[in-house]
Design a protein that fits this description.
This protein is an all-alpha fold. It is built from eight helices and no strands. The protein is globular.
Length: about 180
């Protein structure tokens, strides 16, 4: 039943993708495609994982093109970078010309440079970059520098957040695992 509901949402998303006439118009349906891929992945089973990977691969191709087409520094360009990082993190495959975690880190670094320190957007990017560096650092052949930078970014996000803020607990959990593994 859940798979049928996800598939019907996918049909609507594909229709919106076909209707888009510019890179900027592709962004909302691509965000929805990434969400559908995550739902397929969560639904479980080999079929869900295969469908999710295929959708994420398709989204990544569209988003790579959008990042090059959209004006650098504009809001749509930043959204495209964020979505590309999100899709790459969800797919997390070493297959292809650029491993997904490397691509996600590169996109997030570009976003990090675009946002002023101490802003909510920057904190969100720092948290996602910290998590991506943590994941990359733990992979076979991962670098200690990624783990160290991950810890520093996650600490900065915690410093920025209110002590009882809703996003604090997940960041603190990742930081605790990073610290346990690093030291």
């Amino acid at each position: 039943m859940a798979a049928k509901m996800i598939a019907s949402r996918l049909l609507a998303v594909r229709k919106a993708l076909r209707a888009a006439s510019s890179a900027a118009e592709l962004l909302p349906p691509l965000a929805a495609t990434i969400k559908v891929a995550a739902e397929f992945r969560e639904a479980g089973g080999d079929d869900g994982a295969v469908r999710a990977r295929r959708l994420l691969g398709e989204s990544i191709r569209y988003l790579r093109a959008a990042v090059t087409e959209l004006p650098e520094g504009g809001e749509d360009h930043q959204v495209a970078l964020y979505l590309l990082a999100e899709a790459a993190l969800l797919r997390d495959s070493d297959a292809g010309p650029v491993p997904d975690l490397d691509e996600a880190v590169a996109c997030l670094r570009r976003l990090q440079a675009a946002f002023a320190a101490g802003t909510p957007d920057r904190a969100e990017v720092d948290a996602k970059l910290g998590s991506a560096l943590f994941a990359r650092g733990w992979k076979p052949g991962g670098r200690r520098a990624d783990l160290d930078e991950s810890g520093a970014l996650l600490e900065s996000v915690l410093d920025w957040q209110a002590p009882d803020g809703p996003g604090r607990r997940p960041v603190a959990a990742v930081l605790a695992v990073q610290r346990a593994g690093r030291y």
